[in-house]
């Protein structure tokens, strides 16, 4: 790590600043209720939602092939057909998708303590939101949780030539803020994108948010620091800057 103080912090969005996984689970529960009450599905309702969750986790989205709404409606259509058999039911798939999506967005909120932390940090350093994913999906999340005003800049992977962990998107972020990679810290919950990307770009430090005490694979990228909550970040940044002072 270089001898300059931290000048900028890049934050991931999903499951770092907002509980996307929890919001998604709430959406699935609403769909299960719909399928059981309105359509009289029994255990098939949970099976369908489990299948959709698997499809979402394996999703490869190429914006030039299909819009995200069509792709995700197709996940529901396939899951219903795989579980129930018979003809495809696009109308029911759309109903399930839009209920899941709207419920999910309702529960994507920036907690008050996270807002306070961002507000205080921004008095000392530049803050940038760096999120992978489809442009429409991520913009909807950013609007739902009303987080844009807490950042000096917002960069969405789906709007760029390359996403995390490619170094190019990190260099783009540095240029936006007028800083060097060695001035910056990346904070995120995903080793393969957030941490690997920060390492690839030669950032000052990478901070892995490991809420559940997950044991990483031996082959996984190794972060400079590990915390269980994003709220531990201010104290960590102070200790990084103290090391710089001592070294200097």
From TrEMBL:
Domain of life: Eukaryota
Cofactor: Mg(2+)
A Pfam entry, by short name: Hydrolase
Organism: Daubentonia madagascariensis
Entry EC no(s): 3.1.3.29
Family membership noted in the UniProt record: Belongs to the HAD-like hydrolase superfamily. NANP family.
Keywords noted in UniProt: Carbohydrate metabolism, Hydrolase, Magnesium
NCBIfam families referenced in this protein's UniProt entry, alphabetically: CTE7, HAD-SF-IA-v1
Protein name: N-acylneuraminate-9-phosphatase
Database matches in PANTHER family: N-ACYLNEURAMINATE-9-PHOSPHATASE
Database matches in CDD domains: HAD_Neu5Ac-Pase_like
Keyword field contains Transmembrane helix: no
Keyword Aminoacyl-tRNA synthetase applies: no
GO molecular function, one term: N-acylneuraminate-9-phosphatase activity
EC supergroup of this enzyme: hydrolase
Reactions this protein catalyses: N-glycoloylneuraminate 9-phosphate + H2O = N-glycoloylneuraminate + phosphate; N-acetylneuraminate 9-phosphate + H2O = N-acetylneuraminate + phosphate
Pathway: Amino-sugar metabolism; N-acetylneuraminate biosynthesis
Swiss-Prot/TrEMBL GO biological process terms: carbohydrate derivative biosynthetic process; N-acetylneuraminate metabolic process
């Amino acid at each position: 790590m270089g001898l300059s103080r931290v000048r900028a912090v890049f934050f991931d969005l999903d499951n770092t600043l907002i509980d996307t996984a929890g919001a998604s689970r709430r959406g699935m529960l609403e769909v299960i209720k719909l399928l059981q009450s309105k359509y009289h599905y029994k255990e098939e309702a949970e099976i369908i939602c489990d299948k959709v969750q698997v499809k979402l986790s394996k999703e490869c989205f190429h914006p030039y092939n299909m819009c995200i709404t069509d792709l995700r409606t197709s996940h529901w259509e396939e899951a219903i057909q795989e579980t129930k058999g018979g003809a495809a039911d696009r109308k029911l798939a759309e109903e399930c998708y839009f209920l899941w999506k709207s419920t999910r967005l309702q529960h994507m909120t920036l907690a008050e303590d996270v807002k306070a932390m961002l507000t205080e940090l921004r008095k000392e350093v530049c803050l940038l939101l760096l999120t992978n994913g489809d442009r429409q999906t991520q913009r909807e999340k950013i609007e739902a949780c009303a987080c844009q005003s807490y950042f000096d800049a917002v960069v969405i992977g789906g709007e760029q030539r390359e996403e995390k962990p490619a170094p190019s998107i990190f260099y783009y972020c540095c240029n936006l803020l007028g800083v060097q990679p060695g001035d910056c810290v990346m904070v995120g919950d995903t080793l393969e994108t957030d941490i690997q990307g920060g390492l690839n770009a030669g950032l000052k430090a990478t901070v892995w948010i490991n809420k559940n005490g997950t044991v990483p694979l031996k082959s996984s990228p190794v972060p400079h620091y590990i915390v269980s909550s994003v709220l531990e970040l201010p104290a960590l940044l102070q200790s990084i800057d103290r090391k710089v002072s001592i070294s200097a």
